[in-house]
């Protein structure tokens, strides 16, 4: 039961996050896109990343997916 719950939770996180990043890149939505820059101009060292909004939305989706899965599993048992 714990393995299935983990698979549902992790799978929904990966799927929703990847889907949001894909949508962001297909339709050029900056807050759904991931940009990565690394510049080292003789030890100038500059790092920049992209939007973490899809990750946060993915965490919320996986939380609710786990709650729904557990609720349906408990209904099936009792």
What is this structure, in a nutshell?
The chain has 78 residues and is mostly helical. It has helices at residues 2-26, 53-77, and strands at 37-39, 46-48.
Structural features, described:
A hairpin with a 6-residue loop joins β1 and β2 (46-48). α1 (2-26) packs antiparallel against α2 (53-77). The chain is 64% helix and 8% strand. The chain has 78 residues and is mainly alpha-helical. The chain has a two-stranded antiparallel ribbon with strand order 1-2. The longest helix is centred in the first third of the chain and has 25 residues, at 2-26. The chain is elongated. It is built from two helices and two strands; from the N terminus they run αββα. The two termini are 15 Å apart. The mean pLDDT is 91. It has helices at residues 2-26, 53-77; strands spanning 37-39, 46-48.
Largest sheet: 2 strands, antiparallel
Low-confidence stretches: none
Count of helix runs: 2
Rg on CA atoms, Å: 18 Å
Give the termini distance in whole angstroms: 15 Å
Strand order of the largest sheet: 1-2
- What's the average pLDDT? 91
What key attributes describe this structure?
elongated; 78 residues; mainly alpha; 2 helices
Summarize the SSE layout with pairings.
Layout: H1 2-26, E1 37-39, E2 46-48, H2 53-77
Antiparallel strand pairs: 1-2
């Amino acid at each position: 039961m714990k393995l299935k719950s983990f698979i549902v939770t992790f799978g929904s996180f990966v799927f929703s996050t990847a889907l949001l990043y894909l949508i962001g890149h297909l339709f050029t939505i900056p807050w759904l896109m991931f940009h990565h820059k690394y510049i080292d101009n003789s030890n100038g060292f500059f790092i920049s990343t992209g939007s973490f909004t899809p990750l946060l939305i993915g965490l919320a989706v996986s939380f609710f997916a786990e709650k729904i899965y557990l609720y349906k599993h408990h209904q099936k048992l009792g």
